[in-house]
Design brief:
Blueprint (H helix, E strand, L loop, with lengths): L4 H19 L15 H7 L4 H8 L3 H8 L7 H12 L1 H10 L6 E2 L12 E2 L3 H9 L10
Antiparallel strand pairs: 1-2
Helix pairs in contact: 2-5, 3-4, 5-6
């Protein structure tokens, strides 16, 4: 099988980058973004409904549904996050809690999250916003 000039150039570029890393001339790493991710497989492995999965990891239910039905493809960042969730969901959950992006987590399938779905029980910022809203009585706004 013949190798095209473009493929050969890509391989040589990759070898040059690898040599730079070994010599310490280049820091960091490059993330491989998968072209496709089997969202349904990840979700069912976690024994979650589409709604539970969406709430638990910060996706919209419509996006999860569209990804699973192949109407849309997750953006690159979402594909990376989905692969991390697939590899180790606890890492993602811990990072979200430590970053203050979510409150308390409930096991999937439990009551407590919005609409009785498992996942995120309370987003602290959303609770603060709701608590700060004035209550309108008698149809008149303050």
């Amino acid at each position: 099988m013949a190798v095209s000039d473009a493929d050969f150039a890509n391989v040589m570029e990759g070898l040059g980058e690898a040599a730079d890393y070994v010599r310490g001339a280049r820091k960091g790493y490059r993330v491989h973004v998968p072209e496709t991710v089997d969202v349904k497989s990840i979700r069912t492995k976690l024994d979650m409904s589409q709604a539970e999965f969406a709430v638990h990891y910060g996706f919209s239910v419509n996006a999860v549904r569209d990804w699973e039905q192949k109407r849309r493809r997750p953006e690159a960042a979402a594909r990376v996050l989905l692969k991390v969730i697939d590899h180790d969901p606890a890492v993602v959950e811990r990072a979200l809690v430590e970053a203050g992006l979510i409150g308390v987590l409930a096991p999937p399938g439990t009551q407590g999250a919005p609409g009785g779905m498992g996942g995120v029980i309370a987003d602290q910022e959303e609770r603060k916003r709701k608590a700060a809203r004035p209550v309108h009585r008698g149809g008149r706004k303050p």
